[in-house]
Amino acid sequence: MSLARQSSSSRSGLRELFGSHGPAAIVAAAIVALASAYGALALLAAGERGGALAIIVVIFWLSAWRLTAGLAALEPAGRSARAIVSVLVPSIFGLTLLFLWEFVVRGLEVPAILLPPPSAIGAKFAASTPTLWADFVQTYLKAVIAGYVLGCGSGFLVAILIDRSPFWKRGIMPVGNLVSALPVVGIAPVMVMWFGFDWPSKAAVVVVMTFFPMLVNTVAGLNASGQMERDLMRTYAAGHWTTLMKLRLPAAMPFVFNALKINSTLALIGAIVAEFFGTPIVGMGFRISVEIGRMNTDMVWAEIAVAALAGSVSYGLLSVVERVSTFWHPSNR
Q: Which pTM does this prediction carry?
């Protein structure tokens, strides 16, 4: 019995040591993570590539994991505190991945042509800001935004128009699924031939890629309202358009925002890939294809970072608008 008590007490002690999520444990994990990161960077600067570096990197990873897990387990009472925690957790996790990337690539002396460290990518980003901005304007602010607005807007309007026609719904939905399955590498050369080498051809690719996801999701959302709610609207003598505006469109908003968020990433991918098949001497896809041929992988990764930031920001903004617009939906309560 005494051995069982000792074993139980030892297990509880381990749980208290590794499972505590109090403020003291979180602060301690943060201090250890910062100290180990500084130590690893100092060893790399001194040319150390041995076991001491590996041990410090492992300590950094464990402490950073402990810090992230502790923050994720917090349940603050205030809304502002919850918002801060929701931002801190992915931010610290992303920084942890970047530091591990830096330590592993430099510690193992991986050739920069295969995988440059984040520090080299950041230096290239800072040195090439005018070029990156010009590529961003050409690809995102022109092609992506124009194609995204046209594709999502037309898909939404067509879904409302065909909603009253079972013939059109049954006829156009299989076509939509077929077009959604078409590879962008097959559509892009055709659009370049039709609309030229400048950004309108890339916007046309984005329209094709975003139209049918919006159409399919909107049609599904319009059918999401229950039969009981529709019967209630009929008892109020509500017509089709009144029912659409008061009941069916609000019920479809989560589906519409789901399509908007999906299309925000599809549009960027489609525009970048379309630039591989013909574009002026500017654009994110053009820069990636040219620089990878020159073996300038740091510039390629800098363009990838710009694309990732643009996609993440657009997705986050749409999520905020969705939360404000559909605050009544169970997923947001």
A: 0.79
Please name which of 102, 43, 33, 42 lies closest in space to residue 68, comparing C-alpha atoms: 33
Query: What's the average pLDDT block by block, 10 residues per block, for the chain (333 residues)?
Result: 45 42 78 87 81 87 88 79 83 91 88 88 91 92 93 91 78 74 80 86 91 88 75 70 78 90 91 86 89 89 92 90 80 64
C-beta of residue 218 within 8 angstroms of C-beta of residue 156: yes
Contact at 8 Å (CB) between 152 and 259?
yes
| Per CATH, domain 124-332 is 1.10.3720.10 | yes
Token couple for 286: 């053009």
Angle at 128 between CA 123 and CA 134, to 5 degrees: 145
pLDDT on residue 181: 74
Give the C-alpha separation, 16 to 8, whole Å: 12
pLDDT of the residue at 203? 92
How far is it, in rounded angstroms, from Cα 177 to Cα 192? 23
- How far apart are the C-alpha atoms of 24 and 32, rounded to whole Å? 12
Place of tokens 């297990």: 11
Query: How many Å apart are CA 18 and CA 296, to the nearest integer?
Result: 44
Q: How many CA atoms lie within 13 A of 145 on its CB side?
A: 9
User: Could you state, in order of their start, the residue ranges of all structural domains in the chain?
Assistant: 2-110, 124-332
* Angstrom distances, CA of residue 57 to CA of 30, 66, 192: 14, 14, 49
